[in-house]
Amino acid sequence: MPDSSSILIVDDSRSVRNALASLLRKSHAIEQAENGEQALASYARNRPDIILLDLNMPGMNGLEVLRTIREGFGDDETYILILTADDSSGTKTRGLSLGANDFLSKPFDIAELRARVGVAERQRKLTRQLVDYARRIQNEIDLVASLQSKLLPTATPYLQGIHIESLYEPSGEASGDYYDFFPVQEGRKIRTVVADVSGHGARAAFIMSIVRTVFRITQSRYMPLDETVALLENHLMDAIGDEEDFVTVFTADVDFTDERLDYINAGHCPGILRQPSQEPQLLTGSMPLLGFLKAPVKMRSIPFTKGSGLLLFTDGFYDWKKQDGTLFSLEDFIAAATGCLGRDEHVLKKITTTLEEAGGGMPAYRDDLTALWIFNETTAS
């Protein structure tokens, strides 16, 4: 019976076990156990689809078997039908709270037993289909995440005196975060971008690919930063303008020849600018987020002298709970990060270590983590 459901019958009465087996053997694969210990051994060995479980047995009773399967083995899929002469509400409540799927009172009607086993079979079939579907979906998400990681930079472009660090840690699903950096205008500038698409999964990854495509076009066919963002906004409005999705972007052209930083912050976290002998400066939003409400593109320009550095990041670095239960805020992150910005290498590593210390342990990040650190180290001021 390769396509039949397997049933484990657990009862301390041989006559009850044999009667149930006689009724069900024609269309099911049957295993029997006369006590709780045998039941768990048979369960671990065969993983039946359905368990008919007596509650009142010597030694380990049915409720203990039920608890062990649900909590000890972590099995929420096996259909467990309780057979008991005790049909009090207290017994049913305890059984259901421990994970029983159904109850049938002894003595039971044969037709009702077969009907309830039929319900159990349909439920198990549906559960298997859902598990298989979820597994295939997860495989697709994993494939998307793998392909997505290949869209991110694999090497840092060499420019004398320029130091770039990157960090990318997805939350476990296909990510909505994106970062990039590449030379433009024959290497006179480095174009950088950090973006965050709302949500996770394949949808966010698809929208992220739109963002990357628009920016990467400008590597081979240069376009000023404001025109690039305007083009991206048009594409996003066409693709998601009627949906609830949105994208936040911080993008900058770092001109090391003219020592200037041109940037656009479209609803993103503030960039943190460190300049020699000055307090860190927050580069806040210059325009609303993208894909939601079309607005004029506003670009700002500031000096980026020798010894200056720029930190870009996504919101996964804050809005997580510390060990004491308090929320680690954006202000907390800025305070922690600014103390790490300097000429030393491994700035991003220092930041993550500082966050671990500030949170009293490894932070329970709830979102993707993405960061860029760009430093003009041509000479020290």
From TrEMBL:
<dbReference type="InterPro" id="IPR001932">
    <property type="entry name" value="PPM-type_phosphatase-like_dom"/>
</dbReference>
<dbReference type="InterPro" id="IPR052016">
    <property type="entry name" value="Bact_Sigma-Reg"/>
</dbReference>
<feature type="modified residue" description="4-aspartylphosphate">
    <location>
        <position position="54"/>
    </location>
</feature>
<feature type="domain" description="Response regulatory">
    <location>
        <begin position="6"/>
        <end position="121"/>
    </location>
</feature>
<protein>
    <submittedName>
        <fullName>Response regulator receiver modulated serine phosphatase</fullName>
    </submittedName>
</protein>
<dbReference type="Pfam" id="PF00072">
    <property type="entry name" value="Response_reg"/>
</dbReference>
<keyword id="KW-0378">Hydrolase</keyword>
<keyword id="KW-0597">Phosphoprotein</keyword>
<dbReference type="InterPro" id="IPR036457">
    <property type="entry name" value="PPM-type-like_dom_sf"/>
</dbReference>
<dbReference type="InterPro" id="IPR011006">
    <property type="entry name" value="CheY-like_superfamily"/>
</dbReference>
<dbReference type="GO" id="GO:0000160">
    <property type="term" value="P:phosphorelay signal transduction system"/>
</dbReference>
<dbReference type="InterPro" id="IPR001789">
    <property type="entry name" value="Sig_transdc_resp-reg_receiver"/>
</dbReference>
<dbReference type="GO" id="GO:0016791">
    <property type="term" value="F:phosphatase activity"/>
</dbReference>
<dbReference type="Pfam" id="PF07228">
    <property type="entry name" value="SpoIIE"/>
</dbReference>
